[in-house]
Design goal:
Elements: E1 4-11, H1 16-33, H2 37-57, H3 66-70, E2 74-80, E3 83-93, H4 97-109, H5 112-125, H6 137-145, E4 150-155, E5 160-170
Antiparallel strand pairs: 1-2, 2-3, 3-5, 4-5
Helix pairs in contact: 1-2, 2-6, 5-6
């Protein structure tokens, strides 16, 4: 049996049609290759959250922008042994780094019980932002994986950085 597989490898601008295409491809893969229903649901949930973050929260996603050529948004899923690793990347304003980093660090500091409490609290206090989100995406990711969110920021210039994130879903 093969221990390594690239399930999805998308690098480039992300539009609604790209999201639909990736999710269709993913659904086909998991329905044929992943026998555990809970794992299938978790992979799909994480993928939807990640793609939504790239689509809604990337500060540069216009494929005509010169930064996209050097720092394309990415969404990659690898299967390594019994784990699924999801890699994402997108450009964001340097001004957003501190808030995003603080939110991830807070999640990474909590045990699963604390994440569940934060999820319930956030659900009851959720307000839709101007970008259309309710701030639950990262919480759902931490809750679904049960693992720490790995992330990094690579400075592009004085205005933008490349945000890379990795999620590990173990069976």
């Amino acid at each position: 049996m093969k221990n390594y597989d690239v399930v999805i490898n998308h690098k480039g601008a992300v539009s609604l049609s790209v999201v639909d295409s990736i999710l269709h491809q993913l659904k086909s893969y998991i329905n044929h290759k992943v026998h555990d229903k809970i794992t299938r649901k978790r992979i799909y949930t994480l993928s939807v959250e990640c793609l939504e973050n790239i689509f809604r929260h990337a500060d540069v996603n216009d494929e005509k922008n010169s930064l996209i050529k050097d720092y394309p948004p990415r969404f990659i899923i690898e299967k390594i042994s019994e784990s699924f690793i999801i890699h994402t990347g997108n450009i964001l304003l340097n001004a957003h780094i501190s808030n995003l980093s603080d939110r991830i660090e807070k999640l990474n500091s909590l045990e699963l019980e604390g994440i569940n409490l934060l999820y319930k609290e956030s659900l009851s206090n959720a307000e839709i932002s101007e970008k259309g989100g309710a701030g639950l995406g990262l919480i759902v990711m931490a809750k679904t994986t049960g693992q720490k969110i790995r992330y990094d920021f690579e400075k592009i210039n004085d205005k933008f950085s490349y945000f890379a994130m990795q999620l590990n879903l173990k069976r």
